[in-house]
Amino acid sequence: MADALLEIEGVSKRFGGVIASDAISLTVPKGELHAVIGPNGAGKTTLIAQLAGEITPNAGRIRFDGLDVTALPVDRRSQLGLARSFQITSLFLDFTALDNVALAVQAHAGHSFRFWRNARREPQLRDPARAALARVGLAGRADVIVSKLSHGEHRQLEIAMALATSPRMLLLDEPTAGMGPEESARMVKTLRELKGELTILLIEHDMEAVFALADRITVLVYGRIIASGAPEAIRANAEVREAYLGEQEAAHG
């Protein structure tokens, strides 16, 4: 595909006798929000970890903007513009939201965390950090200590930290997990605003969020793609309904 930003070709990963990724092939064009759904144990997080560079596949190829990144480490993929939210899993709880994002800017520029005091003063770190906070709706919370922020605000902050690295593509793993309806709605609004500006691959269990946001949806079951297409086609697909959506409907019925 000429406008493909991410191309996954025959990616396979085994953990002992368990096939977590079974010859997965998928293309994500520039500007698309592509959701990957599936029941627990489908291999969704393993797939995103392989795309981020945290896990190396046993077979297959991953290309980002035409470049083979299959063997590249996380930091090299990040430099190319591929960012995973929650790859910086521990927020600095005693620092402000702005400090945390400024540190992400600093780390992406290749500086050591031990110079964090500079991050509190340097405009070249603070300005992009403020801009990233504004993009996720946290402009008014910049100077709040992170331990005082809500769970939903933590997730938004993690996305701001990913945005601060000037990514071309975001890999998002369950961004609404653990959120109440109000926080979840706020996250969907944030992602809708980012959609189109960035290419996004979204793993999400909340079907309401998925169908509200996705241009295309891919369904994984036991590490294998059983369907991939427009949201309406996925919703109408009998195999998908049996494997996954029916289970969701039963859980929420």
Tags for this entry?
single chain, alpha/beta, Rossmann fold, 2 domains, six-stranded mixed sheet, four-stranded antiparallel sheet, 10 helices, 10 strands, globular
Determine Rg (CA atoms, Å).
Answer: 18 Å
> Which whole number gives the mean pLDDT?
89
User: What does the overall shape look like?
Assistant: globular
Count of extended strands: 10
Which structural class best describes the helix and strand composition? Answer: alpha/beta
Superfamily (CATH H level) name of the largest domain: P-loop containing nucleotide triphosphate hydrolases
CATH level 3 topology of the largest domain: Rossmann fold
CATH architecture of the largest domain: 3-Layer(aba) Sandwich
Order of helices and strands: EEEHEEHEHHHHEHEHEEHH
The major pleated sheet works out as: 6 strands, mixed
SSE arrangement:
Elements: E1 4-15, E2 18-29, E3 33-37, H1 44-52, E4 59-64, E5 67-68, H2 74-80, E6 82-84, H3 97-108, H4 116-119, H5 123-135, H6 151-163, E7 169-173, H7 181-194, E8 199-203, H8 207-213, E9 216-221, E10 224-229, H9 231-236, H10 238-252
Parallel strand pairs: 3-8, 3-9, 6-7, 7-8
Antiparallel strand pairs: 1-2, 1-4, 4-5, 9-10
Question: How would you describe this structure to a colleague?
Answer:
It is a single chain. This protein has helices at residues 44-52, 74-80, 97-108, 116-119, 123-135, 151-163, 181-194, 207-213, 231-236, 238-252; strands at residues 4-15, 18-29, 33-37, 59-64, 67-68, 82-84, 169-173, 199-203, 216-221, 224-229. The protein starts with a strand and ends with a helix. It folds into two domains: 1-81 and 167-253, Rossmann fold (3-Layer(aba) Sandwich); 89-166, no CATH class. With 253 residues, it is of the alpha/beta class. The protein is 40% helix and 25% strand. The strands form two sheets. A six-stranded mixed sheet has the order 6-7-8-3-9-10, with helices on both faces. The chain has a four-stranded antiparallel sheet with strand order 2-1-4-5, covered by helices on one side. It is built from ten helices and ten strands. It is globular and about 55 Å long. Helix 6 packs parallel to helix 7 (181-194).
